[in-house]
Amino acid sequence: MTTDTVQPATESYVFQGTINKKPPHVLDGQGVRMKIEKNGKIYDDVLDGVTGAAVGALGWGDEDLPAWLEKAAKNHTYTFPSLIGNPASEDLAKFYIDNSPKGAFAAALWCCSGSESNENAMKIIRQYQVERGCPEKYKIISRDLSYHGFTLGALSISNCARASAFKDILIDQEKTCLTMEPCYPYRFQKKGESEEQYVKRLLDNLEKIILDNDPKTVSCVIVETLPGSSLGTCPSPKGYLPGIRALCNKYDVVFMLDEVMCGTGRCNPNGKLNCWENFLEPEDAPDIQSVGKTLGSGFVTIAGVLVGPKIRDAYIKGSNAVFGSHTYASHGFNCSVALDVQKKIQAQGLTANIFKMGNLMGSKLQDALLDKDNIVGDVRGIGGFWSLEFVKDRTTKEVFPAKLDVGHRFQDVCFENGLNVMGMQGNADGISGDIALLAPSFIVTEDDVNEIVKRVVKSVEDITEQLKAEGNW
């Protein structure tokens, strides 16, 4: 994979990652392949198996992008969204609403990141409760081992090491931001417990939390439809999400889904946009939903909040206003480019393609890895979003010691084998547990899938042998 070397400039001026060291830099790319410089070496055929953080849809070097950018630049002059709007933001909102089940959503707000979209959703929900005369409903229930973003508000409804690092300055974790059990069948469904029994146990736990905290004070339940960097793409068992919807209806609680990573076409079974369509009927749609990632295919910084009709109606019957705004909310340039991205994806049937090719990739990985002697305990996912979970013992599902950092080591091994994946830690208890995420571009072909699988399998074999040689497996 290495074709040349350059003299590296190792000192970084960007305050992220390892502060004083530059990460690998992308120099060029085409389709699902990238050219990357790392420590002075040039890697010219790296398969982009995760598109950053499940962001890419159209891949590298899209031929239509320059024209979209030029059009957006010519037609856009900045406007502050609470004073003057722009057609592109309206058109993008209508596109998303029209390509969701009828009646699911009635409005949208566009922002610049998934963290920002979840932050805005929390504020929208809070004002909704006030608008309809229920200010006492302020408590938020989210899941253990969840991740909803890196702002303090989004971290307050997250439950992982990234949130724990800021626990002293988060929203009250005992009285306001409450925690229910994760939905994680591979690790937490008990031996001998049926899927139906497991779902009932989870729903009974949620109902108990609502009742113990007084339903009149509970505002919303927030769930990642298909968790990404938290648990590693665990599909919900049958009846779980409909059960949460029913409890929210029963106790007058807002039902919110976080689809920042898994939504906008990455995991939709109907060639549309929403991941929840794998699990819920249209009439059980969420009341509010955050989206992001593939919305602009990484070409522009955009994410959003989709608002259901009952929330919109409560605002209209109340103050009919949102007080405050982000400077770059519903930014015309970003919305214009994102809309062109989505129109191309729709015209070329790429959401259907990634669902088919992603499921093919997942099934091939399951066949290639789960009956072989290696560290992979589980391969799971839906459509274009899959994970490997690494374990020391398949029978007991024992995790590797956190100090071994197997997830990130696997990421490094994959890179040397010409594949970009996302390695993570903490899925088992917030600290321990190792996974790797795969989320290729929507344009991926069967040949690309076969090559991704080949490189993943080689990397699993390599790290398994490394750990064995160290006496760690």
From TrEMBL:
Q: Which UniProt keywords apply?
A: Pyridoxal phosphate
- Organism domain of life: Eukaryota
Q: Name one GO molecular function term.
A: pyridoxal phosphate binding
InterPro entries associated with the record: Aminotrans_3, PyrdxlP-dep_Trfase, PyrdxlP-dep_Trfase_major, PyrdxlP-dep_Trfase_small
Query: Which parts of the chain span the membrane according to its record?
Result: none
Matches recorded under Pfam families: Aminotran_3 (PF00202)
Residue ranges annotated as coiled coil are none
Q: Which GO terms describe its cellular component?
A: cytosol
Q: Which PANTHER family match?
A: AMINOTRANSFERASE, AMINOTRANSFERASE CLASS-III
Family per similarity comment: Belongs to the class-III pyridoxal-phosphate-dependent aminotransferase family.
- Name used for this protein in its record: LAMI_0D12772g1_1
High-level lineage: Eukaryota, Fungi, Dikarya, Ascomycota, Saccharomycotina
